[in-house]
Amino acid sequence: MTEHQPGIFVEGTDHHVFLEFELGAAVPSQLPAAAGALLPWDGGEQVVAFGPRLAEALSAVAAPDGDFGFRAIEGSDGHVAPATQRDLFVWLHGAKRDELFAQALKWREALAPVAALAAEDHGFLFRDSRDLTGFVDGTANPKGDVRQQAALVPRGPGAGGSFVLAQRWVHDLSAFASLATAQQERVIGRTKADSVELTGAAMPPDSHVSRTDLKRGGEPLRIYRRSSPAGGIADAGLFFLAFSAEVERFRILLGSMFGPADDGLRDRLLSWSRPISGSFYFAPPADALRAAFSA
Description:
The protein is α+β, with helices and mostly antiparallel strands. It has a domain at 49-85 and 130-291. It has nine helices and 14 strands. The strands form four sheets. Strands 7, 10, 11, 12, 13 and 14 form a six-stranded antiparallel sheet that branches. β11 (228-230) and β12 form a beta hairpin. The longest helix has 15 residues, at 97-111. It starts with 14 loop residues before the first strand and ends with a helix.
């Protein structure tokens, strides 16, 4: 049975490091030896994923979707989801920030012969798993075995792997805080204190929940979110990280948020939060990941 990368599903970690690398002109069919970075370590968990041009080139990786690159979205009211598609993504998370930092250095050194670090973000646990807006994050995330059903390719090429959406968002916290709590709740679609979903007429059709709690063919369109508050005082926001069995779910979700969906609405939260990056990756199963690097 194909084994997924276990770090995808380890929850409750306090610290996160998100690294995105870009290759040079040459795209290798095998990555350089990275034993020091790939070996099990006591400092936490890690997930490694490849962008479309690297996934296609690596002989050990069989991504099921061919070109799954992130395409920029020109949304309604001037809201844009920019594309900054990169080639390799490393997510480190655990209890000790110093150990995550040390592991991040190992990855930079291991990949230095073929790739440069293009983006680096650090995430953290904020209070009782809240976003910096003050709302609980991930309330509707799937639980138990449903997490695997939402996140992992079930069969065929890439089985046991997962598509990844990585976006860095920046919040206008001052402007959002100026809203009354009841207004904030209508923007999000949940109560702020205890994260209870609004119902009936109290739930606006352009709330964040309404635009992201979607169905396809009558079935819930599930993804598995692993987002984290990120940034400093000047660029405080969110690193949105999610896993899916198919990349199309992400495209449907983003279309609903930004406005190209059929009903013409867009997510009202975009008035206070904007993405500044966007990439899709494929996290292969553990055996394919190991084979992608030289011994």
